[in-house]
Write a structure and sequence with these properties.
Elements lengths: L3 H17 L3 H4 L3 H29 L12 H15 L1 E2 L5 E2 L1 H12 L4 H11 L4 H7 L4 H16 L2 H11 L6 H13 L1 H34 L3 H25 L1
Antiparallel strand pairs: 1-2
Helix pairs in contact: 1-12, 3-4, 3-5, 3-8, 3-9, 3-12, 4-11, 5-11, 6-7, 7-8, 8-12, 9-11, 9-12, 10-11
Length: about 250
């Protein structure tokens, strides 16, 4: 009998496999293709942070007066992930969030940041997330991707948020992509070094230590409740399907 985590992974594997085999990767063949990819992939880097912070809001106390909330184990898990994502280091050892690191990589490449800049400006001007997404000049598929993320972040129960964070938002970076990136870096080392560092750092931190912490968080929140595991699997599959919409838009 497989563990609940193993069973969930088995459920989502066909959808995950489709994403790993998506045609978008084979179309990134040169520096210009990488720039085109980055201008839309940045939205997945950005909204990941909001999904993460929604978990921190639900699993820890972030208001005054402080009172203990939930399990100290899950508090530790989410706080450690937040610290790594929100205040990691760049290639020079300076503190930076993974999103800001990605933006720095885009600027080094000369990739178009106007779309993500527009979204952030709309939010800073006081628009709701729904209004900001609707008004931003991005394809409908990218809007659908963002809308699902914030539907989960704002309204889903904690075990569903944790599952989408862990399984549905797992960054899908196949070997093909890293091989292409290494080739582009060889041709344009002064323009792609920060992006290459971001990808390597992302694989090292998110794919390793943070991944294990996230699995522990899902297991703790779902416990022995079969309904929670079912809800977690369904939401994770939906999240992977909306990531496919993002990939389709980039393609």
């Amino acid at each position: 009998m497989p563990s609940p985590i193993a069973a969930l992974k088995l459920r989502i594997e066909p959808t995950r496999a489709d994403l790993l085999a998506h045609r978008v990767y084979s179309q990134i063949t040169d520096f210009e293709g990488l720039k085109q990819f980055a201008q839309y992939h940045v939205f997945a880097v950005w909204d990941f942070m909001s999904l993460l912070k929604s978990l921190q809001l639900g699993l820890t106390c972030v208001q005054l007066p402080w009172v203990p909330v939930g399990s100290a184990n899950t508090r530790f898990l989410i706080n450690e992930i937040v610290a790594g994502e929100e205040s990691d280091v760049d290639e020079h050892g300076n503190r930076i969030s993974h999103f800001e690191l990605y933006l720095a990589a885009m600027r080094q490449m000369g990739a178009d940041t106007s779309k993500i800049d527009q979204l952030l400006a709309l939010l800073k001007a006081g628009n709701t997330i729904e209004e900001a997404i609707d008004a931003t000049n991005i394809p409908a598929e990218v809007k659908a991707f963002l809308q699902y993320t914030f539907q989960i972040a704002q309204h889903a129960p904690l075990h569903v948020k944790a599952a989408v964070f862990t399984f549905g938002r797992e960054d899908l970076i196949p070997d093909m992509f890293t091989e292409i990136l290494n080739k582009i870096y060889t041709e344009h080392p002064n323009k792609v070094s920060t992006f290459k560092y971001y990808i390597e750092r992302h694989i090292e931190v998110d794919g390793g230590h943070h991944s294990q912490l996230a699995l522990e968080m899902v297991a703790a929140l779902c416990g022995n409740d079969e309904n929670k595991w079912e809800e977690a699997a369904n939401a994770s599959i939906k999240a992977l399907e909306t990531r496919c919409l993002l990939w389709n838009a980039i393609l």
